[in-house]
Design a protein that fits this description.
Two copies of one chain form a homodimer. With 150 residues, chain A is of the alpha+beta class. Chain A contains three helices and seven strands. Chain A has a five-stranded antiparallel sheet. Chains A and B meet through helix 1, strand 6 and helix 2 of A and helix 1, strand 6 and helix 2 of B. Strand 6 of chain A pairs antiparallel with strand 6 of chain B.
Chain lengths: 150, 150
C-alpha cells in the first residue's frame, strides 16, 4: 500500500493507521482537536447513500474501533462523530468520510465551537499548506495508533 | 408497540416511523431543520462503544435508509449526520442516537450554525414544553414518513 485515494487527494500510506477489508482510517493534517481522525470507505464514493450494505457495516465497525482508540489514547472523555454528507452540509472532499474527534471538558470555550472548526476544516480556501502538520509528525502519530491496534 | 424507551424518556409509538430488528427512528419534538429525525438502537445503551457489532450494522443501515428518505421528502440536497457521544460532546439523553438533518442551500445564515442549534437541541435547560410541536403534528409527520417506507 503506497498511497490511497481520498476523493481528489492522494493519501500517503504513512498517514493511514488502519485498513480493513472495505475501509481505512487516517490521521489529519489539520486536526481540530488532538486525535481528530477520519474514517473512509476504500471505494471513493461521494455520498453516504452510495455505499453498499457491507461498506456501511465495515465503515461503522471501523469507526467504533477507531473512536474507542482515540478517546483512550488522547485522554478524552467523549467523542464527536460526524459526516458532512453533501456540499450544503459542508462537504468539500468528494469521498464519504466520518470525522472522529476526541472531546474533553473545556476543549472549546463554547462546547459547540468544535463544529465551527469542523466546517472550516474542510473548506478549500482555509486549507493553506503553512497550517498543515509535517509528514513526519503525521507518520509518527499514525504509527503510534497503528501499534495499539495490532 | 405502545411506547419505546429513549434514555430517560418514553417515546410514544406515534412518533416512531420505522422499527427494525435492532433500531428505531423517530421524529423530533423540536427539529432544528424540517425533517430533523433521530435513529437509535432499541437497546438503551449510553455510549457508541457499548453497541454490539450487529447493533452498529443495523443502526447505520437504518440511518442510511432514513437519511435518503428525509433528504428526498424534505426537498433537501445534503445531510448532516452526527452523534454527540458523551457529555463533553453535548450528549444529554443517555441513549446512543444519530441525528439526521436534511440540509439545503441557505438553511442557515452561517452554514455551521446548524451545529450550534444541534447542541442547544439536547440541552435540558433549553427544553421547555412551550417550544415542542404537538403530538398530533409529530404523529402526522411520522405517519407520512412511515407510508413511504412501506
Amino acid at each position: 500500500m503506497a498511497t490511497l485515494r481520498f476523493g481528489q487527494h492522494v493519501i500517503k500510506a504513512s498517514a493511514v493507521f488502519l485498513q480493513t477489508e472495505l475501509s481505512f482510517a487516517l490521521v489529519n493534517r489539520k486536526p481540530v482537536v488532538p486525535g481528530h481522525v477520519l474514517v473512509c470507505p476504500l471505494r471513493p464514493v461521494e455520498r453516504f447513500r452510495d455505499l453498499l450494505p457491507e461498506e456501511v457495516a465495515d465503515l461503522f465497525s471501523t469507526t467504533q474501533r477507531v473512536a474507542a482508540l482515540v478517546e483512550t489514547h488522547f485522554n478524552a472523555t467523549s467523542l464527536t462523530i460526524a459526516i458532512q454528507d453533501g456540499p450544503e452540509a459542508g462537504q468539500t472532499v468528494k469521498h464519504v468520510h466520518v470525522h472522529v474527534l476526541p472531546r474533553k471538558a473545556g476543549d472549546f470555550q463554547r462546547n459547540d465551537s468544535v463544529y465551527d472548526e469542523l466546517q472550516k476544516h474542510d473548506r478549500e480556501d482555509e486549507d493553506v499548506h503553512s497550517k498543515w502538520r509535517t509528514e513526519e509528525e503525521m507518520a509518527a502519530e499514525a504509527s503510534d495508533l497503528s501499534r495499539q491496534l495490532h
